[in-house]
Amino acid sequence: MRGATHAKWAACAVAVALAATACGGDDSDSGSGTGSDSGAVLSSSWGDPQNPLEPANTNEVQGGKVLDMIFRSLKKYDPETGEAEDMLAESIETTDSQNFTITIKDWTFSNGEKVTAKSFVDAWNYGASLKNNQKNAYFFGYIEGYDKTHPEDGSKQSADTLSGLKVVDDKTFTVKLSQKFSTFPETLGYPAFAPLPQAFFDDHDAWLSKPVGNGPYAIDSYAKGSQMSLRAWDAYPGEDKAQNGGVDLKVYTDNNTAYTDLMAGNLDLVDDVPASQLQNVQADLGDRYLNTPAGIIQTLAFPFYDDDWNKAGMEKVRTGLSRAIDREQITETIFQKTRTPATDWTSPVLGEDGGFKEGLCGDACEYDADAAKRLIEEGGGLPGGQVKITYNADTGSHKEWVDAVCNSINNALDNERACVGNPVGTFADFRSQITDHKMSGPFRAGWQMDYPLIQNFLQPLYYTNASSNDGKWSNKEFDDLVDQANAESDTAKAIGLFQDAEEVVRDNMAAIPLWYQNGSAGYSERLSDVRLNPFSVPVYNEIKVG
Amino acid sequence: MGRYVVRRLLQMIPVFIGATLLIFLMVNVMGDPIAGLCGDRQCDPATAAQLEKEFGLDKPVWQQYLTYMGNVFTGDFGTAFNGQEVTELMSTAFPVTIRLTIVAILFEIVIGITLGVVTGLRRGRPVDTGVLLVTLVVISVPTFVTGLLLQLLLGVEWGWIKPSVSTDATFDELIVPGLVLASVSLAYVTRLTRTSIAENKRSDYVRTAVAKGLPQRRVITRHLLRNSLIPVVTFIGTDIGALMGGAIVTERIFNIHGVGYQLYQGILRQNTQTVVGFVTVLVLVFLVANLLVDLLYAVLDPRIRYA
Amino acid sequence: MPEQPDDDGAIAATGMGGAMDLATSEGETLEKTRGGPEGAGPQEKPRSLWSDAWRDLRRNPVFIISGLIILFLVFISLWPSAIASGSPLKCDLAKAQQGSQPGHPFGFNGQGCDVYTRTVYGARTSVTVGVCATLGVALLGSVLGGLAGFFGGASDSVLSRITDIFFAIPVVLGGLVLLSVVTNNSIWPVIGFMVLLGWPQISRIARGSVITVKQNDFVQAARALGASNSRMLLRHIAPNAVAPVIVVATIALGTYIALEATLSYLGVGLKPPSVSWGIDISAASPYIRNAPHALLWPSGALAITVLAFIMLGDAVRDALDPKLR
C-alpha cells in the first residue's frame, strides 16, 4: 500500500515536470521583427553523410540533402507533384527511345566555370568508371559501353569512358542506350546525373573538402562531422533562387536532441521528428509541423531461395500473414499517422497518372483475423510453426513496429509465439546476411524511390536478379510484363503494363506491403513556406526566414 | 620508485600490442563492412571488390594487422569510410571527451566523496537514508531518461542551459552533461567512501588522533579520509576508461561529438580503422591511469612501497 | 584485530563516546542490538570469524528485511503465475499507453501489454541476470585481483596487464562480436559476457584493497607466526578487504540488469519473446513524456531489488567487520 502511494506520487511529479516542459518552449522570441529577410540564415538538423559527397557516390538522404542544394541536373522533380521538369535541359530529343540528343541552357558553376556538355559527359564517365568506386554507378548501366567501364564480374575495365556518350558541341551531347528505355529522360533528375566542374577533376581532395556545384547554394565552410554552412549563391542563373540567405546544417548525434533544440529555439528546422515525440508535436509545435507523403514504402520480403517459403501453397501463407497485420492500428498508434497503410506496392506520390493505384492489393492487405487463420492453414501452416521477422537494430526504431506487427499476427492467429522479432546488430551484418541468402523468414525491406516512376518501385525490387530483389523472387510473367512496359513508348500504356506486373506481385504476395512512409518535419516560428519534397527532403530554397 | 615506473611503462608495450590485436580481430570477425555501404541494396560485386581492395580488406587478417600497425607507428591511423582521416576525427573528439571526463570526475570527487564522508559519519541517520534513496533512483532510472528530463527542464522549460552542446564544447556547457555522465559513478563513489569511512573511523589511528586533541576537521581530512580513499581512487581510476569510451548515451543526448559517439558509430559501421585507432588511444589512457592509481596508493598509505 | 575483535569494539565505543562528533554521530542501532549478549561471547571460546558473522547477521533487522525481499523476488521468479494471472505476451495495441484500470493496476505499455504482468514475469530474467552476473564477476574478479594484490611482483604484473587488455574492449563491440555468434535465446551467454567484461573492475578494486590490508600489523604477525598463504588470505585478509568489493558488486547488480537491456537494444542480447525489466525500461524510456507509468514500474522493481542487495551487502560487511563488534 505504502509502496503504491509512493509510486503514484513519483509518477505525478514526473508528469507535472513533463507537462510543464511540454507547454513551454514556444516563447522564444523571433528576433528579426516583421517581414521576411532574404539575407537571414536558417539552421537545420543534419546527419553525417556516410560517403564522400560525390554525386554518383551519395546514396543516402543526408548527403542527398546537400547535393539537392548545391547541384542542379538536367531535370528537377517538382516538389509538389514529383513530375520531372526541365532544369538545365533545353531539350531532350529522341525518336527511338534509345538515342537521345540533349541540349543544355546557359549555366555556370558557382566558381565561375561554364556548365558545358563536357561537364555532363565527364561527370557521367567518372561515375560509371569502376576505378572510381562510385556506389551509384549502376545508374549509368543503361548507357552503351557500361559493360566495358564497369565489368560486372570485377575483371579489369577495358574502357575509361562510356562509348554511348558523345559531345557534339559546347551545348549539345548525345546518349546512346544499350536498350530501349522510354522513360530515361525522367530519371535524369537524380543527383547522380549532375554535371561536375573541371575543378572536381583537377584537385579532387580540395573539391571534396569543399564541394563546388551549380545549384542555388554554395558551400561557405564545411567542418566534417559538425557543421556545413551553405550560403545563397547570388549569381545563381536558375529561377528557383534561394529565398533566404543560407542554411547552416548542424550535425546532430541524435534526432531527439535536434528536436529538443528546436523547442528551445536553438534550431530552425528538424526534418526527422523522432518517433517518440510524434505524440507531442501538436502540443510542442502546433501547426509548425509537416507530415507529407514521401516516395518510401516499407515491406516484408521473403527468402524465396528457402524451399520452405517457395513451395506451392506458400503464397496463401504469405497472404495470410499479410491479412493478419492490422496496418490501420499500427500506423495510428506506433507511427502517429506518419505512415499510411499500404494498398499497393508503389507510392501515392506517383499520383494516379504515374501508376499509383489505391486498393490494387485488395483483400490481401485488409486485416481479417479469420481469413488470415484460414489462409495459413490452407497453405500448410507457418514453416517451423513460427515466423521470425528479421531487422537491423542499429538504425531507425524498427523494433517497435516489428513487435507491433508480431503482436498483431499473434493475436490474429491466437498463438502467442507465432511471430517473434529477430534483431540483427548492425545494418552491415543485416545486409551481409541478406546477400549471403541466410534469411530463414520474412525480413524488413524498405524502398525509397530514386525517381518518381512506377518502374522504380517494381523493377529493382522484383525483376529476376535485380539489384534490390533481396528475396530472389523470380517470375517469368512479371519479367515479361516489365520488359514490354520498358519498350512501350506510350506512357499510359507503359504504366498499364507495369500495373499488370504489379498484380502478379500481388497474386504471389512476393512481398507484404506494410505502409507508405511520410516525411515529417518541425520548424521554428521564424520560418515560413516550409515544405518537404517527395524524397522527404525540405525544399530549402523556398524557405523564408523572418 | 623510478625503476618501478620504468618497468610499468615497458609493460605497456605487450598490453598495447595485445589489445590492438584483440580489437582488430574483433572488428574483423563482425563480417563484411562493405555490405552496409550501399543502402538497402546489394552493392554491385565489381564495386564491392574494388572497395575491399582499396581498404585492404582483401588481404589476410594478419597482413592487414601488420600493415596497420606499421602505419600507426608512422602516425598514420588510416581513413574512415567517408574519407575522413582518423587522426582528424581523433583530434576533434578527444579534446571534447577529455573535458567532459574531467567535469565528470570532478563531480565524482567533490560530490561523491563529500556525500560519502557525510553518510559514513552519520550512518543510519536521515541524511544517510536520503542519499541511499537518491542512489537507488540513479541506478534504476536509465541515464537516457535523467539526461532527457534535465535537458527538457533546464534547457527548454527554464532556459538555464542550451539543450545541446556546441562544437566548441566549453567547460561551462559540459556541466550538466558531466553531471549526467557521472551520476551512476557518483553512486559508487559515495557508497565506497561511506563504507571506508565507517570502517576506519573506529581504527586505532583515528582514536589516537582524537585522543591527541586534534580538531575534528583535521582528523577527518588528514587521517580518516586519507586512509579511506584507496578503494575510491581505485574505482575512479577504472572509471576513466568507461567515462571516456562509454559515454555513448550522454554524448548522444547532448549532441557531443566525442570519443564514445565516434567509437559507437565506427563499431556499427564496422570501420576497423576508426575503432582500432580510438581504442588504441584509450588503452594508453587506461594504462597511464592505472599506473597513476598505483602510485597514489603509496602516497595515501606510506606503508605501501614499490620496488 | 580479528584475534581480539571485542576489545577493539569496546574501546572504540567507550573511548570515543562523546569525545567527538565522529562517535556520537553513529547512532547505530545495530551496535546496540548486538552489544549486550555478544560482548561477552567471543572471550569464552574462540569461534571462527565466519560463524561469528552468521550469528550477527541472524539478529540484524537490516539483514532480515533484505532477506525477505530477496525471498519474495525468488518466489515470483519461480512462480510468477501465483500473483499474475495474465500472460506477459498478450498485447493489444488498442490499449497502448493506457493508465491504471480495474484488473490492470499498472496500466499498459506502448505495445498495449499489461505492465503489472510483465513486471512480475520480468523478475525471473532480470534477477537471474543480475545475481548470477554479479556473483560471477565478484568471484572471478576478487580471486584474480586478490591474488595479484597479495603476491605482488611478477604475478601482479601479469594479472594486472591481462586486466588492462580486457578493460580495452568496448562493451558495444564485445557484445556485437561475442554475442552475435550465439543463436539460442538463453540468458547464460549474456551472463557469461557480463562476467567476461565485468571482472576487471572488481579485480582492480580487490587488488587495491588487498594491497592495503596486507600492510596491517595483524597480517604481518600472522605471517611471522608461520601462517600459510591460504590461511592468511582467507582468515585475515579476505574479511578485511571484502568491503569495497561488496559495495561495488551490489551497485553493479543493478547496472547488470540495465546492461541486459542495452544488449537487447543492440540486437544481441535476449530476443523476444523474452520478458525482462531491462527490456521494458529501455522500451519505455523514449516515451517518458507520454507514458511515465510504463517506465516507473519496472524501474521501481529494479530499485527495490538493488535496495535489497545493498542492504544485504551492508549487513554482511558489518558482520564481517571486527571493529564494529
SSE blueprint:
The complex is a heterotrimer of chains A (546), B (307) and C (325).
Chain A: H1 2-23, E1 41-46, H2 61-70, E2 75-77, E3 84-86, E4 89-94, E5 99-104, H3 117-128, H4 146-149, E6 165-169, E7 172-176, H5 184-187, H6 198-202, H7 204-209, E8 217-223, E9 227-232, E10 246-251, H8 255-264, E11 269-270, H9 281-285, E12 289-301, H10 307-310, H11 314-323, H12 327-333, E13 339-341, H13 351-354, H14 369-378, E14 387-392, H15 398-413, E15 419-424, H16 427-435, E16 443-448, H17 454-462, H18 476-487, H19 491-508, E17 511-523, E18 527-528, E19 544-545
Parallel strand pairs in A: 1-10, 14-15
Antiparallel strand pairs in A: 2-3, 4-5, 5-7, 6-7, 8-9, 9-10, 11-17, 12-16, 12-17, 13-17, 18-19
Helix pairs in contact in A: 11-14, 14-15, 17-18, 17-19, 18-19
Chain B: H1 2-29, H2 45-54, H3 61-73, H4 86-121, H5 126-140, H6 143-157, H7 175-200, H8 204-211, H9 216-245, H10 248-253, H11 259-268, H12 272-300
Chain C: H1 5-16, H2 21-24, H3 29-44, H4 49-59, H5 61-78, H6 115-151, H7 153-167, H8 171-179, H9 187-213, H10 217-224, H11 229-265, H12 277-284, H13 292-320
Helix pairs in contact in C: 4-13, 5-6, 5-13, 6-7, 6-9, 6-11, 6-13, 7-9, 8-9, 9-11, 10-11, 11-12, 11-13, 12-13
Structure write-up:
The complex is a heterotrimer of chains A (546), B (307) and C (325). Chain A is α+β, with helices and mostly antiparallel strands. Chain A folds into two domains: 48-214, Alpha-Beta Complex (Dipeptide-binding Protein, domain 1), CATH 3.90.76; 294-517, Dipeptide-binding Protein, Domain 3 (Dipeptide-binding Protein, domain 3), CATH 3.10.105.10. Helices cover 32% and strands 19% of the residues of chain A. Chain A has 19 helices and 19 strands. The model of chain A is unreliable at 1-35 (pLDDT under 50). Chain B has a domain at 88-270: Orthogonal Bundle (MetI-like fold). Chain B contains twelve helices and no strands. The longest helix of chain B has 36 residues, at 86-121. Chain B is globular and about 80 Å long. The model of chain B has no long low-confidence stretch (mean pLDDT 86). With 325 residues, chain C is mostly helical. In chain C, 71% of the residues lie in helices and 0% in strands. Chain B: One of its GO terms (biological process) is transmembrane transport. Chain B: Belongs to the binding-protein-dependent transport system permease family.
